[in-house]
Amino acid sequence: MAVPDASIVTRFAPSPTGNLHIGGARTALFCWALAGTLGGRFLLRIEDTDAARSSEDSARAILEDLAWLGIDWDEGPSFDAGDRTLGGDPRAVGPFHQSHRRDLYHQHLEALIAAGRAYPAFDTPAELGAMRTQAEAEKRTFIYRNRPADPAAAVERAKAEPHVVRFVAPDDAVVVVDEVLGEVRFEPAQLDDFVIRKADGMPTYHFACVVDDEAMGVTHVVRGQEHLMNAPRHVALQRALGFRTPTYAHVPLIFNDQGAKMSKRERDGAARQAAKQSGFDLGATPVAGLDAEVFARWLKDKKRQLEPDQLEALATALGIELPEVSVGEFRAGGYLPETINNFIALLGFTPSKLDDGSDRERFDMAFLVSDFDLARIGKSNARFDRKKLLSFNTDDVTGMEPSVFRERFEGWCARFMPEIMDRLTDAQRAVLVPAVQPQSKTFRDAADRCGFALIASGEIEHDPKAVKKWLAKNDNAGLGVLGELKGTLGAHTDWSAGALHDAVERFAGDREIGLGQVAQPLRVALTGTAVSPPIAETLATLGKDEALVRIGLCLVVCKPRVGSA
RNA sequence: GGCCCCAUCGUCUAGCCUGGUCCAGGACGCUAGGUUUUCAUCCUAGAAACCGGGGUUCGAAUCCCCGUGGGGUCACCA
Fold first, then answer.
1. SS3 state of residue A31
2. Can you tell me which residue has its alpha carbon closest to the C1' of nucleotide B13?
3. Can you tell me the ipTM of this complex?
4. How many Å apart are CA A69 and CA A275, to the nearest integer?
5. Dist. CA A530–CA A462, nearest whole Å
């Protein structure tokens, strides 16, 4: 890490209108890492100037997601992350919610009007819409520049009438110097007199952002390339206000499988496609909270989105998994925060090489905070490859120290799969959890593999394919083995996994059959399927009584019917 | 459509700035074998790319131009 430099400040400034998106997480991560390599501080600001769409719940959720990822902010809203406290205001530059900073914006805005660099405008939305339509009809780009002939009169009129305040765009070209893209030039003909204060008195994003970056001493602005067209506006505003221009870095976007900006619509798209493919009939399969008309409209219109819970319910009805897009969804999906950080850092950024000259792909936060460099950010957009993420996550889950795995997995279960904690004893989990770890790609995957221990023996559904292959085949060889096993296991007393492992092996050895010929019929009996954790641990988790009940039950349920093949 | 950005294996990328060491390297995925009591792992091998066209140069993935393709953005949203 670099020598501490108190003058360096990076910031992440989300707007609290939804969950933290994976792209936002990457931006935050880069800002955090940059502050680290430069020895500066990382600041978090909540951009809630849109009163209607912002919510404190959303702001809170974003804070929690960032803390979960370990993207700790030095300054910003205070947050108790359990083992550490984040945020605070040591330099007294807060508050960090823009909705609480209106006086500051107001001061600068008045100064701008007084300097003749801003003016009240009284156009109604309908009038503006008409101007745009006309411009479009004439194949012109709509550029608003209706400056008042008499500014003083306009200011006077503004005292009594609803209005917005617009910025007087500069007459010169604006050149944005960007650390990633180089110099980007914007001609004055494309700069319009954009709105800097809305009719409700709130500043627009552009104005609040520029004022706050100055007031908070932000030196480096790292954000997605979708903001590139905002940069000339911000630079022009800074000049008019007499502010510094921070260092800009517009990082490439994260794409989805379709090659477009990854967004929350992803999930709607996946569900829509599945619904169309399967010819889903809402009439035949009602979905809670979703009425037919809404569904039909949503099905037709690609831009339409369902409410999150409607979407979840529909996905369940369709029997599909929705693709994760927000950090919370990846968390619920059982991904590790360190893996997510590692993976998203690789989207657009290339770390220094390994000593053998190959690409360095796996690294932790400590590495990132010392190796991050804006010069190593690429210019082209990157597709989000879920398979590669899964591969990374698998490595990290299976490579975890078993005791650590158990602690973290159970922590995840407590939140997302409480049955595992409620229904299994500590002793059962002590056997099952380590058994499941080497097989699991995610915590959710691990939890799924524990499922057999959660159901009652009567609820077991014996998979016909598994029954046929492992019990009925070869003149019911599997059923025969199972019958013998019932006796052998019934007489067996030590139900530790180790002893059971030996017992099963001895059983197979005595009969000179492969272990598979024993384990598979047992799996079918114990779980109803051909897949389970290693057989000894499966038996041990269930316990002797339950295991024997399941075997007995299977023998009855799956016995060959007289007269049928 | 205007403006802006981008362009190496299917995907993420190295190399490009400072032309030759690149018949282009790594990773995920894919294919084929192998290990394994199931699934998942794991091991070995393999296929797989410099968008097209012009220049500049002894020599271009690397520099320049044009074309094509992709993306972003055009709100009293951020």
1. helix
2. A350
3. 0.95
4. 34
5. 10
